[in-house]
Amino acid sequence: MKAVITVIGKDMVGILAKVSTACANANANVVEVTQSVMDKYFAMIMLVDINGLNCSLEELKDSIEKTVPTMTVHVMHEDIFNSMHRI
């Protein structure tokens, strides 16, 4: 099982490190990540393996939001993400 995490907001030092640490603490393994900075704005999409997750997805989201409080964070199960983006 996998989940998709998106993080968007004003760029600052350490966003990737903070989000990755929150994932590691929840035992979510980062499988893939893409990020970009456009002008002063940061955008990241992560795919994480949640087979060993030691909390709920909502708790993972809350944990990430606490580490990057000025960012917009979404955490979604891969199946829901795929259903929403199916043409």
What composes the largest sheet?
A: 4 strands, antiparallel
Low-confidence stretches: none
List the strand order in the largest sheet: 2-3-1-4
| Distinct helical segment count | 3
Assess the beta-strand content as a share of residues: 35-45%
- What's the helix-strand series? EHEEHEH
Average pLDDT over all residues = 94
How are the secondary structure elements laid out?
Layout: E1 2-10, H1 15-25, E2 29-38, E3 41-49, H2 57-67, E4 72-77, H3 78-84
Antiparallel strand pairs: 1-3, 1-4, 2-3
Helix pairs in contact: 1-2
3D architecture notes:
This protein has 87 residues and is of the alpha+beta class. It is 33% helix and 39% strand. It is built from 3 helices and 4 strands, in the order βαββαβα. A 4-stranded antiparallel sheet has the order 2-3-1-4. α1 packs antiparallel against α2 (57-67). The longest helix has 11 residues, at 15-25. The model has no long low-confidence stretch (mean pLDDT 94).
Write a compact overview of the structure shown.
The protein has 87 residues and is an alpha+beta fold. The protein has three helices and four strands.
